[in-house]
Amino acid sequence: MTATSIRDRVAELFADARQVQSQAIERLEAGDLRDAAEKAWCATKRATDALILAHTGEEPPTTAATTDHLDDLCRVTPPAQVLQGRYYSRIYHLHGMCFYSGYCNSQTERRIRETVAYIDDAESLAAI
C-alpha cells in the first residue's frame, strides 16, 4: 500500500467504526442490548485496526492479529497503552460475555456508550 492509500484506508476504517457505533446506540435505544454490545465491539475492533494500520502499514486480518498488534504497539508507542485495557474490557464483556454468553451486566451499557471515546482516542493516536 502507498502512504496515500494507507491514509485513505485508515480514514475508511475510522468512518466505519463511527457508523457501527452509531448503530450500536440505535440498537441500545431499541432495547437490544446484545446486538448493541456486539456492534460496539465491532466499532472497537475497526478503530483498533485503523490505529494499527496507521502505525505499521498493515491491517490485521483477524481479531487475534489485532490483539497481538495492539500489544506490540503499546510496547513501542506508550501513549497507546490508554487503549489497551479498554480494548480487553470490550472484547471480554461486550463480545464474549454479553453477545455470546448472553450475560449482560450493569456495566454493559456504559461500555457501549463509551466506545465513542475509544474511537476518538484511537483516532488521535493514529495521527501521532
Topology:
Layout: H1 3-29, H2 33-56, H3 63-76, H4 81-100, H5 108-126
Helix pairs in contact: 1-2, 1-5, 2-3, 2-4, 2-5, 4-5
Q: What's the number of extended β-strand segments?
A: 0
Task: Say what the CATH topology is.
Answer: Four Helix Bundle (Hemerythrin (Met), subunit A)
Per CATH, which architecture?
Up-down Bundle
What is the CA-atom radius of gyration, in angstroms? 14 Å
Order of helices and strands: HHHHH
**Mean of residue pLDDT values:** 95
- The coarse silhouette is globular
Q: Class, according to the CATH hierarchy?
A: Mainly Alpha
Cα separation of the termini: 19 Å
Could you name the CATH homologous superfamily?
Nucleotidyltransferases  domain 2
- Poorly predicted tracts of residues: none
- Biggest sheet features: none
Proportion of residues in helical segments? over 70%
Instruction: Please indicate the count of domains.
Output: 1
- Output the number of helix runs: 5
Classify the oligomer.
single chain
